[in-house]
Each structure stands twice: as C-alpha cells, then as structure tokens.
C-alpha cells in the first residue's frame, strides 16, 4: 500500500491502460479487471477456418495481457524511482518529493531529492549471522569497486549504529531511528546516472535487495561447495591410511626368499624385524 500510494495509480494508468481498478477483495492489496468482450466464442455452426481464427485471436489476447501482468511487481516497485527520476529529468526536483517506503519488513528505502542530486538510501538488515558477514563484505566491495568504474554514482556505507545526517534531518520516523545489522548504504545520483536510461536505473534500484540476497546465497553455495570438496579429499586420504592387521605375515625378499615378519608384535632381532611396524 505504501508504494502504491506514492505513484501506483499513475503507474497503472501508464503501464496497464486496458485494466481497471476495482474494489479490493479481502486479503489482497489491489484488484484489477479486464474487459474480455473482444474475444469471441466459436459457434457450433462455424467452419474449421473460423474456429482456428477465433482461437488465434484468443491466444494473442491473453498472451498480450498475461505478459503485461507478469511485470506488475517490477513496475510497482520501480514506480517511486521512476517518478523521482522523471522529475529530475524535467528539472522539477524539490525536497517535497522525498519518500519513505518498505519493500518488505526488513527492506526499507528512502529517496531524497536535493538540488540536482537524488539520494537513495537502503537499510540493510539480516537475521542470519552468515548473511550478515557476507553482506558486509559485498557492501564494502561496492564502495571499493566504484574506483574502477567511469563516472559512477557516489556510494557510502554507514556504520551499523550510525544514521546519515540527511536522513535524520528529513525524516523523523521510527524506521530512521532503528538499528540495522549492516547499517545503511547510500547512493548519490546525478542527472547523467538516470536520465539517459531511466527505466534501467529504476529497475536496478527496485531490485537492489534481491541483487544483494542473490550474491549472498551464491557466495554461500560456493563456500559450501569448497568445504564439501575439502572434506571429501580428507576422507579419501584418511581411508588410504589404514594400518595392517597385527600378526605374522610372510613377504618375499629381493633375493627371492620368504621372510616371516611379526606385524605389530614385540621387538625381534634379525631380518624378520626389518618390515615390522
């Protein structure tokens, strides 16, 4: 509801012009309806060619609109970014356009326009200890990686208990005051970062949380794979290091004679003790 209230109606009017917003059904956040009257039903007396033509129209109709609906989540989550980016592209940014919303219970975002700049802030919070550690490494790497990119946006990661001054100044909600396991990461965008490819920029920011989780779990899978291979090698080495059973055994010497050896027994003198453990 929070995201929808920012620019949801405009998003539906732009992206889904053939759909109509209906009264929301219980248990859902939004209900859309579509007029299916353009799709004719084949009649019994229609010939085969007519029936095939009607079937093709039906398939094209539902393929078109099902493809549109498949992107509904992307368009909804990207709508706050697209709204701010469009205002920036038109030179109409102001602090009145600042927004705060949550993608989920543990994923909070703030967007603050200031002059010709746009600040995008993400609160990073993980419950799992391993996820926290890997997320810290990835976020630190993101700060370092901008040195190898031409004209990158500014990237700054705050300490776990530190609130960026600009957030504390513009928002007074409990979300800003809360503590997050991996702090808050901030991106500072200029017009060159979003004006040329606005949709792509909005998509990347709307999926930042999923991007981060993907790389965390990919790293965990890689580490688990290495651990399993290492354990397998150690088990193989351990299986090869087996002691011979105790008792007397007969070996053939270099001269072709049989030599009896007491494996694991008491100390003996002479050639019979040469091969003894």
What does this structure look like?
By secondary structure, the protein is α+β, with helices and mostly antiparallel strands. Helix content is 46%, strand content 19%. The protein contains nine helices and nine strands. The strands form three sheets. A five-stranded antiparallel sheet has the order 3-4-5-7-6. It is flat.
| Order of strands, widest sheet | 3-4-5-7-6
Q: Span between N and C termini?
A: 77 Å
Summarize the amount of helix as a percent range: 40-55%
Mean pLDDT: 83
Strand percentage lies at 15-25%
Q: Note poorly predicted spans.
A: 272-277
Q: What's the gyration radius in Å?
A: 33 Å
Structural class: alpha+beta
Form type: flat
- H and E order: HEEHHEEEHEHHEHHHEE
Largest sheet: 5 strands, antiparallel
Total helical segments: 9
Number of extended strands: 9
Task: Please give a handful of descriptors for the protein shown.
alpha+beta; 5-stranded antiparallel sheet; 9 helices; flat; disordered C terminus
